[in-house]
Amino acid sequence: MNNTSLVETNKLTQKQKIILYFFIYAFLGWILETIFCIVTLGVFNKRGFLYGPLCPIYGFGAIILIECLKTVKTNTIGKFFIGMIAFTAFEYIVSVVLEELFGLRWWDYTEQALNFQGRISLAYSIAWGIIGVIFVEKIHPFVKSKIERYIIFISRKNQVLILYSLVVVIIVDFILSVVKYIS
Fold first, then answer.
1. What residues form DSSP beta bridges with 120?
2. 165 with 154: CB under 8 angstroms?
């Protein structure tokens, strides 16, 4: 089998790429949250809703941004505003849903100036815009190129096995986490 047919045979479908990106960015978000906590609090503090080292809000946020910007051709300032608006709206919705379901707040910005219901704040909205630009201009292209470069070395069968194993693991983690918070 030549290199071109190996690449075509081992290519992920668009849906499978989205699943893989979700896991990568949920894990990177967990790392970001953990580092932020260590820097601001001086100690390790378990971050996120799940037991495992994933913050799904970052995985979903990354997918939202990838999908929002894949057909939009804009400059850095446009990407900033799209990222800022998309992440801020998503952060607000997730905050409301989590509080309604579990009666808990995973973050609270009431002490910050220009916040709305403590769920979102101007400072974090600006940070999300900056992170969004860095994400779409630097992080995602880097991750995407690495995946495309190395995925061909994993058989199609093993790719699917790995992806769906991760999905099963996160579903189990989600169920156990929900049980923990509603008990």
1. 116
2. no
Q: How many residues does the structure list for the chain?
A: 183
Cα(137)–Cα(139) distance, rounded to whole angstroms? 7
How many Cβ atoms sit within 10 Å of the Cβ of residue 64? 17
List, in order, residues 6 or more apart from 53 with CB less than 8 Å away.
Answer: 27, 30, 31
CA angle 139–53–180, rounded 5-degree value = 140
Q: What is the pLDDT of residues 128-171, one digit of tens each?
A: 999 999 999 999 999 999 999 998 899 989 999 999 999 999 99
Chain position carrying tokens 């970001």: 32
**Residues 123, 126, 131, 133: what is their CA dihedral angle, to the nearest 10 degrees?**
-170
**For 137, which DSSP code?**
I
